[in-house]
Specification:
globular; 50 residues; mainly alpha
């Protein structure tokens, strides 16, 4: 059986609320726990500057 993993999404209508910061911290912590992490920035505005 194929396993697709888990997905976590960070969403807000308003910009400048810290989505990229939260995303980076969560991704870092998961990677530190030896989890596989893929970050996709699908924001229509400026890209995340990480």
């Amino acid at each position: 059986m194929t396993s697709y993993g888990r997905f976590i999404a960070f969403y807000s209508h308003k910009g400048g609320v810290g989505r990229s910061l939260v995303l980076a911290n969560v991704a870092f912590e998961l990677a530190r726990q030896k989890k596989k992490v893929l970050i996709l920035d699908l924001d229509l505005g400026p890209p995340a500057s990480i």
